[in-house]
Write a structure and sequence with these properties.
There is one protein chain. This protein is of the alpha+beta class. 34% of the residues are buried. It has 29 helices and 16 strands. Its EC number is 3.1.3.16. Residues 595-805 form the PPM-type phosphatase domain. It is an enzyme of class 3 (hydrolase).
Length: 824
C-alpha cells in the first residue's frame, strides 16, 4: 500500500503552476493569432465592417456610407472588395430590401463608370472622391424620380448633402481602411489619420443603433468603450476628441443620442486626466462623468440604465489585453510607447552609424598592421643571405671565366669564401681599402685580385644605395603605420561617443530652473547636455543682464551648490538690446589653471621673427604650450615655424596622440620641400585635472621648472624636424605642482649670453635670483637679462614663455540652494 500511495503522491507533487500559466498565456496568444489571421489577413473584418456600415444611417434616412466604403476597398484592396460588397448588401437588407437593391445597383454603376474612365485617369486616388460623390448623387436623383415622380427643393437639398457626405467619407476611408487591411504596421500615424480612424470607427458603430441586450443599448456601450481605450492610451486630448467626434456622429445618426455626446466628451477628458491611475483610474473617470451628466439631464430610471451601460463598457475595457493597448499606443503620437518606438529607431540608426565608423576604424587598423608586419628574418640569417647574394654577384663577374674556378670554389670553398667575406667587410668599413696583410694573402690565392677589388667596390656602391633605399622605405612604412593607427584610434573613440546614449535631463532642467527662480533669478530656458562629474555642460538663456555679471556672480555659484562641484561660465553672449536674451554656457571648472607670459624679440630688432609660439587649450582638459624655431631668420624661418605650430594645433585638436602628431608633421616637413629648411619644436602638454605634464622636445633647448628654491631641468636629445624621415620622439613626463613655474625658451635665449661657459648654471642662477612669480614679468626679465649680457645686441631670434601652475580657486563662493540628485 505504501508503494501505491507513493506512486500516487509523486505526480501530484510535480504539478508545475508556472507551466500551466505559460500554457494559458500560450493558448491566449494562439487564440489572438487565429482571430487576427481570420479577420485581418483573410479580410473578414471588411465583411463585418461592411455589414455595420450598410446599416448605418444619418438623420434616420440617409445612407452615405456604402458606396464610399466599397470604392475605397476596391482601390486599396481589390481582392477583398467582394467581401465588402456582400457585407454592405446584407447590412442594407436589414433596413429594407429597397435599400439593399439600391446599394447593389449604385455599386455596379460605379464599377462600370470607373472601369470605362480608368483608361484616361492619371491619378485614381485623387479622382475617386469626385466619382463617388457624383455617382451617388445621380443614383439618389434617379431613385427620387422613380419613387415620387417629382422633385421638391427638400429632395434636391438632401441629395446634395448625401453626395457631399459621400465625397468626404471617401477621403476619410482612403486614410483609415489601410489600418484595417494591411498586416504590416506603419511606424507613423499622422494626426489626420487618427481623426479619420476615429470617424470611421464611430461610423461603424452607428450600425449598431437599435441593438439592445437586456435593455442596454449596444451603441452606448461600444462608444464608451472606444472613449475608454483612447483615453487610457493617449490621455485627455485624444480622449476628449474621440468623445466629441463619436458623440457628434451618433447625434447625426439619431437625434435621441445628442445628449450622449456631452457624456462621451466629458468622460474622455476625465478618463485622460486620471490616466495615471491605469485602467481603474480611467474607469472611475467614466463613472464620474456618467453620474454627473446623468443626474443633470435625465431621471432616476434612465440614470440606472446609463450606469449599467457604463458598467458593461468598463467590464469590456478591463478585459481588453494589455498587449492590444500597448500595440495600438505605438502608432499614436504623444504616447510614451510611440516615443519609445521612435527612440528605438533612432538608437538603431545610431548603432548602424557607429558600426560603420567602427568598421572604418578596423580597416585603418588592419592597414596599419599590414604595414608593420614586414617580412623580417633573424639578423644572422638576414646577414648571411645578403652576403651570399653579394658574393654571387661578385663571383659572376670575376670567377666565372677564371681557369682556377674549380680549384678555388670546389676544392678550397671555405678558404676562398672566408677571404672574400673578409675583403668585403674591410672595403665596406675602410672606404674601399684593404689592409696590406690581407692583400698579400689574397694575391697569393687569386690571379685576378685587382679585378675582384674593383668589382667589390662597384657592388658595394650599389649595395649601400640599396640598403639606404630599403631603410627609407621601412621608415616610411612605419610612419604610415603610425598615422593609420592614430586615425583608427580617433575613429574608434568617435564610434564609442556615438554609441553613448544621451541622457534625458528634462527633470534636472526643471529642478535647476525652479531652484534658481525660487532664489529670485529669472531663467528663460535651461538645456543640459552632460551632468558627468568633471564634465558638466549646461546652456541657459536669461533676460538682458545689462552687463552686471549676473551669470558669473549668481547663477554659476547657485548651480555649483546644486551639482556639488565648481561650475564656471565658459562662454557668454550678452544681448545687444534690452528686450533680448543672453546665452550662457556653463562648464565644470578644472582642478588647475595655467597663467602664461611671453616675451620675444627678432634678430637685430626686426619685425619678423623666425620663432613662433602658441598656447593651445584643447577640448580634452589639456593645455599645450609650444615654441618652434625655424632654421635661420626672417620670413622663411617664420613661415616654417608658424606652419609647424598650425599643423600641430590642428592635429592635436583632432584627438590624435602627441607622438603620432609630431611624426606626421615631421614627415610633411621632410617631404614637402627639397630645400634644407628645418625647424625645432618644444611642446609641453599639461593635464589640467592633475597637473601632470609631458614634454616633447625636437631639436629644442632644455626647459626649466622652478619649484621654490629648486630648479628642475627638462632635456631630451632629438634632431630638428625635417632632417630625418624617421623621427624618434622621446617623451619626458613630470608631475607639476601648484606654484610651479615652467620656463621654455628658444636657442637664442638659452645660448645667447656671451662669455658664459655653462648655460645651464647661468640660467638656473638667474631663475633662483628672481623675486617675482608673475609669468609675464619673469619672461620680460629673462629676455632683458640675455640682451644686456650681449651688450644690447640681438644676434638671433629670441622667445621665452613662462607658465605658472595654480589651483583653480573659484572667484565666487557657491550660494546654497536646494540640492539636485544626478542621474546615474
Amino acid at each position: 500500500m505504501e508503494k501505491v500511495n507513493v506512486s500516487f503522491i509523486e505526480p501530484v507533487g510535480e504539478v508545475n503552476l508556472r507551466s500551466s500559466k505559460w500554457n494559458l498565456e500560450s493558448g491566449l496568444r494562439k487564440f489572438y493569432q487565429v482571430i487576427e489571421s481570420f479577420f485581418i489577413k483573410k479580410g473578414y473584418l471588411l465583411l463585418l465592417v461592411g455589414f455595420l456600415l450598410g446599416r448605418a444611417l444619418i438623420l434616420a434616412k440617409l445612407t452615405p456610407f456604402c458606396l464610399p466604403f466599397f470604392a475605397s476597398v476596391y482601390i486599396i484592396k481589390r481582392d477583398r472588395a467582394p467581401l465588402a460588397l456582400i457585407g454592405l448588401i446584407v447590412g442594407a437588407a436589414t433596413l429594407s430590401i429597397a435599400n439593399a437593391t439600391f446599394t447593389f445597383i449604385v455599386t455596379i454603376f460605379f464599377l462600370v463608370i470607373f472601369r470605362i474612365s480608368q483608361k484616361w485617369l492619371t491619378n485614381e486616388l485623387r479622382a475617386l472622391p469626385f466619382y463617388v460623390g457624383i455617382i451617388l448623387g445621380i443614383g439618389k436623383l434617379g431613385e427620387a424620380l422613380i419613387l415620387s415622380q417629382q422633385l421638391t427643393m427638400y429632395d434636391l437639398m438632401m441629395i446634395g448633402v448625401q453626395a457631399s457626405l459621400a465625397f468626404i467619407l471617401t477621403l476619410i476611408f482612403l486614410q483609415s481602411i489601410p489600418l484595417l487591411t494591411l498586416n504590416k504596421r506603419r511606424q507613423l500615424l499622422k494626426t489626420e489619420e487618427i481623426v479619420c480612424l476615429i470617424i470611421m470607427l464611430a461610423s461603424i458603430m452607428t450600425g449598431t443603433i437599435g441593438w439592445k441586450i437586456y435593455d442596454l443599448s449596444l451603441e452606448h456601450i461600444m462608444s464608451r468603450y472606444l472613449v475608454l481605450v483612447f483615453s487610457f492610451i493617449a490621455g485627455a486630448t485624444v480622449g476628449s476628441t474621440v468623445g466629441v467626434v463619436t458623440g457628434l456622429i451618433f447625434s447625426l445618426a439619431s437625434v435621441s443620442s445628442f445628449s450622449h455626446m456631452s457624456l462621451l466628451a466629458f468622460s474622455g477628458v476625465l478618463g485622460g486626466l486620471l490616466k495615471e491611475g491605469k485602467k481603474i483610474g480611467v474607469s472611475i473617470g467614466l463613472f464620474i462623468a456618467t453620474l454627473l451628466i446623468g443626474m443633470y439631464g435625465e431621471g432616476g430610471g434612465s440614470l440606472l440604465l446609463t450606469v449599467l451601460e457604463t458598467t458593461a463598457a468598463v467590464f469590456l475595457f478591463l478585459l481588453t489585453p494589455q498587449t492590444f493597448t500597448s500595440r495600438l499606443a505605438k502608432y499614436i503620437p504623444g504616447t510614451p510607447e510611440y516615443t519609445a518606438e521612435q527612440q528605438k529607431y533612432m538608437r538603431k540608426m545610431r548603432d548602424v552609424t557607429a558600426q560603420r565608423v567602427s568598421q572604418f576604424s578596423n580597416v585603418f587598423h588592419a592597414l596599419s598592421k599590414s604595414f608593420t608586419q614586414m617580412e623580417e628574418l633573424p639578423d644572422e640569417e638576414k646577414d648571411h643571405r645578403e652576403m651570399d647574394l653579394f658574393m654571387s654577384n661578385v663571383t659572376e663577374k670575376t670567377c666565372q671565366t677564371c681557369f682556377k674556378k674549380e680549384q678555388c670554389w670546389a676544392k678550397n670553398f671555405n678558404t676562398t669564401y672566408a677571404y672574400m667575406e673578409e675583403i668585403i667587410h674591410e672595403m665596406d668599413q675602410n672606404d674601399g681599402n684593404v689592409s696590406p696583410k690581407l692583400a698579400r694573402e689574397w694575391d697569393k690565392l687569386c690571379t685576378r685580385s685587382k679585378k675582384v677589388y674593383k668589382t667589390i667596390g662597384q657592388e658595394l656602391t650599389f649595395f649601400q644605395a640599396n640598403q639606404k633605399l630599403k631603410k627609407q622605405v621601412q621608415e616610411s612604412r612605419r610612419l604610415v603605420a603610425d598615422q593609420l593607427l592614430g586615425v583608427s584610434e580617433v575613429m574608434e573613440n568617435f564610434a564609442k561617443e556615438i554609441q553613448r546614449e544621451r541622457e534625458n535631463h528634462h527633470k534636472q532642467e526643471e529642478q535647476i530652473m525652479e531652484a534658481l527662480q525660487g532664489f529670485g533669478i529669472h531663467i528663460e530656458q535651461v538645456e543640459i547636455y552632460s551632468l558627468d562629474q568633471g564634465n558638466v555642460d549646461i546652456e541657459m538663456s536669461i533676460p538682458f543682464c545689462n552687463g552686471y555679471g549676473e551669470c558669473e556672480k549668481l547663477i554659476a555659484p547657485c548651480v555649483s551648490d546644486i551639482l556639488g562641484e565648481t561650475i564656471v561660465v565658459n562662454k557668454e553672449e550678452c544681448a545687444t538690446y534690452p528686450n533680448g536674451f543672453c546665452h550662457v554656457t556653463f562648464r565644470s571648472s578644472k582642478a588647475f589653471t595655467v597663467e602664461t607670459g611671453v616675451a620675444h624679440a627678432a634678430k637685430d630688432g626686426g619685425l619678423v621673427s623666425g620663432d613662433s609660439f602658441s598656447t593651445i587649450e584643447l577640448g580634452l582638459g589639456k593645455y599645450a604650450i609650444a615654441i618652434s624655431d625655424g632654421m635661420g631668420n626672417g620670413e622663411r624661418a617664420h613661415y616654417e615655424s608658424k606652419e609647424t605650430l598650425q599643423l600641430l594645433q590642428k592635429i592635436l585638436q583632432s584627438g590624435i596622440e602627441e607622438k603620432v602628431a609630431i611624426k606626421s608633421i615631421n614627415s610633411i616637413l621632410s617631404l614637402r620641400t627639397t630645400d634644407e629648411i628645418f625647424s625645432t619644436l618644444d611642446l609641453a602638454m599639461i593635464d589640467l585635472k592633475n597637473a601632470s605634464a609631458k614634454f616633447l622636445k625636437i631639436g629644442s633647448t632644455p626647459s626649466f621648472i622652478k619649484r621654490g628654491k629648486k630648479i628642475i631641468k627638462i632635456q631630451a636629445s632629438n634632431l630638428p624636424m625635417g632632417i630625418l624621415q624617421e623621427l624618434e620622439v622621446d617623451v619626458v613626463s613630470e608631475q607639476l605642482k601648484a606654484g610651479d613655474l615652467l620656463v621654455m625658451m628658444s636657442d637664442g635665449v638659452f645660448e645667447g649670453p656671451k662669455h658664459v661657459e655653462n648655460s645651464d648654471l647661468w640660467m638656473k642662477r638667474k631663475l633662483l635670483e628672481l623675486e617675482t612669480d608673475d609669468p609675464q614679468a619673469i619672461a620680460d626679465l629673462i629676455l632683458e637679462e640675455v640682451i644686456r649680457s650681449k651688450a644690447d645686441i640681438i644676434d638671433d631670434d629670441m622667445t621665452v614663455t613662462v607658465a605658472k601652475i595654480k589651483h583653480n580657486t573659484p572667484k565666487w563662493a557657491s550660494i546654497p540652494v536646494s540640492k539636485l540628485k544626478r542621474q546615474a
